[in-house]
Amino acid sequence: MIRAIVIGASYGGMEAIQAILANLPENFKIPIFIVLHIGSNRIDAYLSTLNKKTFFTVKEAEEKEEFVAGTVYFAPPNYHLQVENYNSLSLSTDEKVNFSRPSIDVLFETASWVFQKELLGILLTGSNSDGALGMKSIHKFGGISIVEDPETAVAKAMPLSCIQLSKPDYILPLQQIAGKITELAIK
Amino acid sequence: MLSENNDLPVNDLVYGADNGDLFDLEIELLLDAVNRAYGYDFRNYSKAHLKRRIMHRLKMSSLATVTDLQKKLLWEKNFYRTFLQDLSINVTEMFRDPSFYKVLREKVIPVLSTYAHIKVWLAGCSTGEEVYSLAILLKEEGLLPRTRIYATDFNKNVLETAKQGIYKKQDMELYESNYNKSGGESNLSDYYTAKYGSVMFDKSLAKNVVFADHNLVTDGVFAEVNMVFCRNVLIYFDKILQNKVLNLFSDSLTNNGFLCLGTKESIRFTQLENSFSVIDKKNKIYKKGAVK
Ligand SMILES: C[S@@+](CC[C@H](N)C(=O)[O-])C[C@H]1O[C@@H](n2cnc3c(N)ncnc32)[C@H](O)[C@@H]1O
Fold first, then answer.
1. What distance in Å separates the CA atoms of residue B106 and residue A37, rounded to the nearest whole number?
2. Which residues, 6 or more positions from B110, have their beta carbon under 8 angstroms from its beta carbon?
3. Confidence band (pLDDT; 50, 70, 90) for B159?
4. Which of A1, A90, A103, B227 is the S-S candidate for A84 at Cβ 3.0 to 4.6 Å?
5. Which has the closest alpha carbon to B17: A145, A184, A177, A64?
6. Burial, B12: exposed, middle or buried (Cβ in 10 Å; 0-12, 13-18, 19+)?
7. Where in chain A are the domains?
8. Helix, strand or coil for residue A163?
9. Is the pLDDT of residue B12 over 70?
């Protein structure tokens, strides 16, 4: 059973994330945590678009916030987003990881430690290698991993370095990812 | 024995699906051991933070398990200092979050100006960039001569740097830009002298600053003050410890005293929500005394 979903994306990620969230069904019962490398001047507008175009409540995660289903939590620009325990999230101003803060690896690793095999991790387009180690950790702790097919990714580097480092369970074109998430979620 | 295998590949740790809960148990035992052996209590720090820092240490020291780390910590006293350094994140900046300093000038300084003597407790001061920022701001507002700043941290290494007030020249570009955005009207470079790759801030800025070792978890009220600055420290604590430390601040503040937290920290959802009023919601500035 899947209890949480983590998504990571960088260059080209705004469109990719929107494409996925907009195609998840109403009453989707699993909380979603996202790290997207995006500037602080663009995030507000982006989140309000997502609020309009999806069934979810979409917001920036707050420090020690207790998460609920039906809500999508984004890492605030300049803070790492971490899964603190089974109920709550936390933020951190640690050093950058992979030249990034927020870093996908930080979210994925901390999520894998808490949710272990009840976690679904999804890595999308990006032009760096953030997220590869995080996906490996998800895999090691028994979670399920989906990586976007580099062929459909706006930037291939991120999915490629993930595929090289670990064995994702699924490598899928962007259009098929929402369907796969829905299928895995009802199992 | 695994801990003696120095060839253990970095990043290839033993933790995974078969022993994920063991990882949690070992961490609990480790924190207990550290508390009992060294008197530093990290048991109510953020779990995600602790796990990340401990994982980092395992990789750096080529240790396989948290139990190996515990053994090394107990048997090698010097190694403990390294571990303490791992757990205390010292990332800081001058005029970090410029809008905060701007609002401080606009909303708090006018009140402080009416006092004959001002006392400030800056808890978790790290390497001191925040101390010099505040001192510069107070100087420009004409309040520095009658202000005493208690700058505390539980990490002695960073306190040493803070006392010296020497920083990397390469960081000054960012700090200068922060300073300008924060409402500073001179040049930051007026306050330091540059030499080789370093800059040294004027000693006069720190004349009324007392740097001291203080642990927010285990030590009590430090002094009665008109303002507590504690930015980006509570973020590393769990809810229980956040409540405890906020109570400590409340006890340290005079009536109507100001509490300044980091941008992502808040008294919302804590026990103290109703004993402070909000001065600036976005910049996390509060005043002791309930909303009327
Ligand atoms: C991220 S820094 C924040 C520095 C500065 N206040 C700022 O906002 O830029 C956190 C600081 O809190 C200190 N700290 C952590 N736990 C502490 C404790 N229990 N008592 C006192 N200081 C602590 C660390 O040593 C570190 O210097």
1. 33
2. none
3. very high
4. A90
5. A145
6. exposed
7. 4-186
8. helix
9. no
As a whole number of angstroms, the distance between CA B276 and CA B289 comes to: 5
Residue B222 pLDDT exceeds 90: no
On chain A, the residues whose CB falls within 8 A of the CB of B47 are: 84-85
> What is the CATH code for A4-186?
3.40.50.180
Distance CA B29, CA B169 (A): 43
Q: What 3-state DSSP class applies to A25?
A: coil
- In chain B, the domains with their CATH numbers are 2-87 (no CATH), 98-288 (3.40.50.150)
Nearest CA of chain A to the CA of B239: how many Å? Answer: 7
Indicate the pTM of the whole model: 0.93
| Pocket of ligand 1, beta carbon within 6 A | A 93; B 88-93, 96, 124, 126, 130, 153-155, 158, 215-217, 231-233, 236, 262
Model pLDDT for residues A38-76, shown as the tens digit of each residue: 988 899 999 999 999 999 999 999 999 999 999 999 999
Instruction: Using DSSP bridges, classify how beta strands A119-123 and A144-148 pair: parallel, antiparallel or unpaired.
Output: parallel
Q: CB-based contacts of B84: which residues, under 8 Å, 6+ apart?
A: B40, B155
pLDDT tens by residue, B97-126: 999 999 999 999 999 999 999 999 999 999
Structure tokens at A43: 């995030």
What span, in angstroms and rounded, lies between the C-alpha atoms of A120 and A142?
A: 10
Tell me: pLDDT of B252 over 60.
Answer: yes
Helices and strands counted in chain A (H then E): 6, 9
* Element spanning B207, H or E: none
Q: Which residue has the tokens 């240490």?
A: B57
Residue nearest to atom 10 of ligand 1 (CA): B233
- A80, A129, A130, A161: the catalytic one is A130
* B17 contacts A141? CB cut-off 8 A: yes
A16 bridge partner residues: none
What pLDDT, on the 0 to 100 scale, is given for residue A40? Answer: 86
Structural contact between residues B257 and B288, judged by C-beta atoms closer than 8 angstroms: yes
